[in-house]
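=== RUN LOG ===
request id: a7f3
mode: sequence -> structure
chains: 1
length: 180
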Amino acid sequence: MFPSPPTTLPFLLLLLILVSTCCRGASSRDSNATTIYEVLSEHGLPMGLFPKGVKEYAVGGDGAFWVHLDEACNAKFENELHYERNVSGQLSYGMIDALTGLEAQDLFLWFCVKSIRVDVPSTGLIYFDVGAASKRFPLSLFETPPECVAVRSRHSTLHQGQSGRLRYKLDQGTSGRDVL
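=== RESULT ===
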């Protein structure tokens, strides 16, 4: 009923060669990008969405990514953007979704950017979605990575009133007695 071992061996070798060729072909279609800027470009996004100097990043096979900056910073485009030290999201062609770690300023308010979407490239527009609304920008603003000015993380400095002054003084190395 079963084929003799000499017949099975060539069949298994042929199967092994086919599987390894198939897998090698799949990995060659994976990204050859060595920087996050190249990854953005491969996904139809402008390279200037992240500031200059990003050295640490990772992108999963499903498009999930994270970018680590040396420190939180602000970059000026038409509006100001705030990058936390860690930015993450979900990459797909022409879009970043489920974004965390990026905020945009409009007037005097800061809004968490939830997603970024490039419109049909010929229109030259990119949209930043902040949940209840989205803001449209010229794609040309994001052609090159911007300089980013180091700032303290917005999340670590949001203290109110007396307790905020106390925490600030404690961060500065005082005992806190001279604050009250």
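=== NOTES ===
The beta strands are 56-59, 64-68, 73-76, 80-92, 95-106, 109-112, 115-118, 125-129, 134-138, 149-150.
The longest strand covers residues 80-92.
=== END ===
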